[in-house]
């Protein structure tokens, strides 16, 4: 007879409660079993000690006789230190492919280049600020320049009325 250590469901709808049982592998999930060796209440917090209760001596006995645990019960036995469980997931399966790694590398290179450009811009701004701090010593020469520009501004104001008169003449011609 093939013996299995598995979970047998109890409890109400949407309120599961499981018994950890040793049963004939051909019997139904909630059917007849040989012995109950523990309980599992998934509604309790994961760190709660009452979530999984297991009679370790009986579990060791049934494993010695040749009972095969289900995946979930194997996890419980591994947590209790009774039976070692091998990792079932392939860690390489979750790694990104070649194209994705290339895209990630390109993105990282662009980020580094952008950061370097930003740092260079900051340095240039600092240099300009230093140059501006040194520039006030030259301001007296800069004050003379607006006096030179004053005649140019007067000439521009003299030309403006002539341009306005020409614009008025053009408007009158269009209206006729």
UniProtKB/TrEMBL annotation:
Coiled coil: none annotated. The keyword Ribonucleoprotein applies. InterPro entries: Ribosomal_bS16, Ribosomal_bS16_CS. One of its GO terms (cellular component) is small ribosomal subunit. Keywords: Ribonucleoprotein, Ribosomal protein. One of its GO terms (molecular function) is structural constituent of ribosome. Residues 81-176 are annotated as: Disordered. Residues 95-131 have a biased composition (Basic and acidic residues). One of its GO terms (biological process) is translation. Residues 136-176 have a biased composition (Acidic residues). PROSITE patterns: RIBOSOMAL_S16. PANTHER family: 30S RIBOSOMAL PROTEIN S16, SMALL RIBOSOMAL SUBUNIT PROTEIN BS16M. Belongs to the bacterial ribosomal protein bS16 family. This is Small ribosomal subunit protein bS16. It comes from Erythrobacter crassostreae. The gene is rpsP.
